[in-house]
Amino acid sequence: MALPSLNASPAYELTVPSTGEQLKFRPFLVKEQKILMLANESQDKKQIINAMLNTITSCVDGADTNNLTTFDVDYIFTQIRAKSVGEKIEFKFPCKQCESPNETMVNLEELKMGEVKGEKIVELNDKVSVKLKYPSYSNILRSMTDKVKSETEMAMDVIIACMDSVLTDEENISLKHETKDEINKFVDSMSGKQFEEVSKFVQDMPQLEHTVKFNCVSCGHQNKLELKGLDDFF
Questions:
Q1: For the CA atoms of the chain, what is the radius of gyration?
Q2: Measured between alpha carbons, how far is residue 105 from residues 81, 118, 154 in Å?
Q3: pTM exceeds 0.70 for this model
Q4: 3-class DSSP assignment, residue 164
Q5: pLDDT surpassing 70 at residue 5
Q6: Cα 119 to Cα 88: distance, rounded to the nearest angstrom
Q7: Which of 233, 226, 217, 224 has its CA nearest to residue 101?
Q8: DSSP character for 98?
Q9: In what helix (H) or strand (E) does residue 188 lie, and over which residues does it extend?
Q10: Which end of the chain lies in a sparser environment, N or C, as judged by fewer CB atoms within 10 Å?
Q11: What pLDDT, on the 0 to 100 scale, is given for residue 180?
């Protein structure tokens, strides 16, 4: 006799930040939790991203992780996590004055998402522009290898993942049809100012945000911390 399946139906709703679409989801189950724990223990960025994407695919009805932006995934995963193991996470933040650790609770349901502005066209010169869009983790994974990368290399992967097409007077060149070497050559040919304009789009991408305030238990100093991005919360 087959055993019954437990907790398989979606019970909650969320709104996708980039599109406003409403999706139904369920908390993750033991099978997903084991994969997430193993990925976290590995400290391998590629494995962690894949575990997050697989969890969303399993838990959210109609979620297409290939088209979700990175901040969509961060937000959706946070919502699933909150309903799975609890809305509140305990942190130990050091006091800015005396560096004593302070236990502070953060409610995941109070996290805010930065402003979503959408695509942008950056004019590199009077003949060439580049169209930028918010990347997906699927885009970023395609540029990742098993080789350990520096923070600079990882940042470059994200910038390249944001580049949708190059526009000239005669052509609209989609970069998804270009090789990584060709794209790297194009980026390397930019001046410092041109690259800074492209990089600014990445720096201004929406992120999970939350302000933490606490009075130090040791010295009484009033602390205010700005948490940004998924890494700050897990």
A1: 21
A2: 15, 33, 31
A3: yes
A4: strand
A5: no
A6: 34
A7: 217
A8: T
A9: helix 180-188
A10: N
A11: 84
Q: Name the token pair of 199.
A: 């990089």
How far apart CA 57 and CA 28 sit, in angstroms, is: 11
Q: Which long-range contacts (CB under 8 A, 24 or more apart) does 175-179 make?
A: none
Distance (Å, whole) CA 168 – CA 81: 45
DSSP lists the bridge partners of residue 211 as: 226
Residue range 130-150, pLDDT digits in tens: 999 999 998 888 777 656 667
DSSP string, 50-95: HHHHHHHHHHBTT--TTTS-HHHHHHHHHHHHHHHH-SEEEEEEEP
In sequence order, the 6+-apart residues with CB closer than 8 A to the CB of 52 are: 36, 73, 77, 137
Contact present, 102 and 222 (Cβ < 8 Å)? no
Alpha-carbon gap, residue 167 to 24, rounded angstroms: 38
